[in-house]
Write a structure and sequence with these properties.
Region (Disordered): 70-103
Number of strands: 2
Distance between the termini: 76 Å
Number of helices: 5
Organism: Desulfobaculum xiamenense
Protein name: Transcriptional regulator with XRE-family HTH domain
Shape: elongated
InterPro entries: Cro/C1-type_HTH, Lambda_DNA-bd_dom_sf
Order of helices and strands: HHHEHEH
Strand order of the largest sheet: 1-2
Number of domains: 1
GO molecular function, one term: DNA binding
């Protein structure tokens, strides 16, 4: 009962350690990386510890040279609004307004 961490958890902890070491060796601390990713320093810690983040952050990490084996895995992302949703909503409101003014 000394070590209750699952094998995957141990792998992720070691990977997080290696990623932090790589970042430190290349001049990135939590704040510098947070500025680069446009997130808070606590979010950077979550990304490193969980080993998952949105693809846009993975692309940024790859662009600064983080080795592929240290990159986090892509996390499921919530879909954003569809393109043109505001225009469609405004057009629908105009049609409803025209319909009510005719009555």
């Amino acid at each position: 009962m000394i070590n209750q961490t699952a094998p995957h958890g141990q792998d992720q902890q070691f990977r997080a350690f290696l990623l932090r070491r790589w970042l430190r060796e290349h001049g990135y601390d939590g704040r510098a990386l947070a500025r680069r990713l446009h997130v808070s320093p606590s979010r950077v810690s979550q990304i490193i510890l969980r080993g998952a983040c949105p693809r846009r952050h993975i692309e940024t990490l790859a662009a600064i040279g983080v080795p592929a084996d240290l990159l986090p895995l892509p996390s499921p992302e919530r879909p954003g609004p569809q393109k043109g949703w505001l225009e469609r909503r405004l057009e629908r409101a105009r049609r409803e307004d025209d319909h009510t003014s005719e009555a």
